[in-house]
């Protein structure tokens, strides 16, 4: 969910909510599916990941507390403190991780040289807690400019969602470093250096 302040959107929403029929407003909601249990163990072959997850769990409450921390960290800070260490924990060497390459927040390369054809996937970052919905379209625009089709990851440094270029940019994997679930292993596997 994202906060909306556009007066036209707010007016439309208010009119929609108050127009008949209104029975749905009192109808019982369907039961939610059971929540996926927490991931108990970090894969032992990813030792750097355990350290990063511990850091995220320690820092995120502070980073989100504007009174104690101040303004939320910038995209650049999140890339430096979380995204690049995440990629390093997944086996990517620094020379294969480009920050602000061709206006892309993070481009990850299979091999050198850093050229479009060697790009493995892109990461578009947003501020912590910000909606990342628009990040996918922005990253797709970068791919179009480069003339390539690659997977895209959108993140706020803590939450990572991967979209598959082969599946029409359908979401295929997700992980939240603060609230890890077993399904996060799928993202780790997809992002890990081959």
* Rg estimate, integer Å: 19 Å
Side by side, the strands of the main sheet go 1-2-3-4-5-6
Biggest sheet statistics: 6 strands, mixed
Strand content: 15-25%
What is the CATH class designation? Alpha Beta
Q: Could you give the count of β-strands?
A: 6
Structural class: alpha+beta
Order of helices and strands: HHHHEEEHEEEH
Tell me, briefly, the overall form.
Answer: globular
Q: Roughly how many Å apart are the termini?
A: 34 Å
Would you identify the CATH architecture? Alpha-Beta Complex
**Count of runs of 4 or more consecutive helical residues:** 6
Give a verbal description of the structure:
The protein is an alpha+beta fold. It has one domain: tt1808, chain A, CATH 3.90.1570. Helices cover 36% and strands 19% of the residues. The protein is built from 6 helices and 6 strands. The chain has a 6-stranded mixed sheet, sandwiched between helices. The protein is globular.
Write the layout of secondary structure elements.
Layout (H helix, E strand, L loop, with lengths): L6 H11 L29 H18 L1 H4 L5 H15 L7 E5 L2 E6 L9 E7 L7 H14 L4 E5 L3 E6 L5 E7 L7 H8 L3
Parallel strand pairs: 3-4
Antiparallel strand pairs: 1-2, 2-3, 4-5, 5-6
Task: Please give a handful of descriptors for the protein shown.
single chain, 194 residues, alpha+beta, tt1808, chain A, six-stranded mixed beta sheet, 6 helices, 6 strands, 36% helix, globular
């Amino acid at each position: 969910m994202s906060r909306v302040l556009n007066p036209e959107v707010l007016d439309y929403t208010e009119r929609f909510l108050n127009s008949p029929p209104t029975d749905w407003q009192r109808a019982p909601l369907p039961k939610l599916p059971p929540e996926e249990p927490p991931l108990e163990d970090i894969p032992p072959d990813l030792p750097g990941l355990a350290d990063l997850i511990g850091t995220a769990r320690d820092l995120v409450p502070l980073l989100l507390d504007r009174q104690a921390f101040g303004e939320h960290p910038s995209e650049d800070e999140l890339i430096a403190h979380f995204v690049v260490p995440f990629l390093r924990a997944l086996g990517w060497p620094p020379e294969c991780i480009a920050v602000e390459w061709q206006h892309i927040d993070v481009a990850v390369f299979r091999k050198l040289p850093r050229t479009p054809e060697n790009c493995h996937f892109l990461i578009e970052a947003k501020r912590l807690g910000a909606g990342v919905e628009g990040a996918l379209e922005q990253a797709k625009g970068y791919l179009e400019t480069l003339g390539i089709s690659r997977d895209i990851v959108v993140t706020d440094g803590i939450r990572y969602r991967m979209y598959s270029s082969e599946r029409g940019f359908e979401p295929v994997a997700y992980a939240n470093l603060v609230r890890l679930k077993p399904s996060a292993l799928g993202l780790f596997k997809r992002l890990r250096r081959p």
